[in-house]
Amino acid sequence: xxxxxxxxxxxxxxxxxxxxxxxxxxxxxxxxxxxxxxxxxxxxxxxxxxxxxxxxxxxxxxxxxxxxxxxxxxxxxxxxxxxxxxxxxxxxxxxx
Length: 96
Known about the structure:
Elements: H1 10-29, H2 37-41, H3 60-76, H4 91-95
């Protein structure tokens, strides 16, 4: 995500995106995976992680490494067996 030159508040942007997606698509996107006790206490679902990590992509190789990480993450967490099996993945656009 690239913000306008006069705006560098990633936290606000991500909060707005998460709020919008949760409000309009949350039920359709809920992951059929257990919700931890900690999340249950806070009345949180498993759609979003609590924090985010901000990183400026340095070059094409850095972008490829981060995309690979994102694509393999559902496999790593046992949600599917291959990245292609995760229907919400951007890997389908990369392959096409």
